[in-house]
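ESCALATION

Customer reports they have been waiting on this structure for their group meeting. Please prioritize. Original submission:
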Amino acid sequence: MGQAWGFGRYGGPEVQEFFDRPDPDPVPGRGEVLVRVAVAGVNPLDHLLRSGLVPGLDGGRPFPRVLGMEAAGTVLARGEDVDGLEVGDAVFGFALTGGGTYAETTVLSAPNTARIPAGLSATVAATLPVAGTTAVDALDQLGLPAGATILVNGVGGGVGLAVARLAAARELRVIGTGSTAKREHAEAVGVRFIDYTAEDVVAAARELVADGFDGIVDLAGGTSLRMVAPLAREPHTVISVGDMSVADLGGRFVERRLDRANLERSARLALDGVLAPVVTAVHPLSDAPAALATVENGHPAGKVVIKVA
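Update from on-call: job pushed to the front of the queue and completed.
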């Protein structure tokens, strides 16, 4: 039996459970690899999937389903038609098969999986599939030149800090919004921080950038997105990572690239220290409920991960 943390039906935290899978080592299908999970990343997407709000990413699997969308570990077996990955390789990637990652083993789609380069830890690698590649995609989509000014709305989380670090490496001037608890981590990566709990975000932003931002990357969505969107010089330079209603404001939803090439690019940036994540909590698999609760309810600064092996 292989232990996993998942959910038996759609709903809130009350549907979560530990269970023993009857197939502790699932057989990888065509184009898939079986991976022994070392570290799993924890993301807001995990509880959204559990809640049934983003159907289509479950691989059509029956309940109970394993939670988690990103992992780093070691290849145990390959299915047919797998190129570029071998048994024994240290890898990281997206669990787009619906196999989940809060478990001892999982099945990953080979095109969405990459080798971990020498010198990069499994903990860092496990943070890159979601936060790292999202930061790359959002900033590539904006395509701002050096010297431009960007607002990161919701800068303190894993994706927000990754966007800020990458933007600074591209010589952009970075302004970020967040709660008081996020200030230290944001300022440590060079962000001019606006505390939305202590000041008027719009007034503070306009005081810093009177003629409008060259681009906005939104991680907060909702009312917060609608409040800051008018601060952009041009509506189409507002990119939202989590709120598709940005299109109603003239902005764009982030265009995601989940392939191996983008994973490898993020890994190189991590090796160079550009996408060095701020990992603020490491939980054992037995503490997976607390790990997900931190992300779902606590809006953590930086990244939360689960160390499985």
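Sent to customer with the following note: The radius of gyration is 19 Å.
Escalation resolved.
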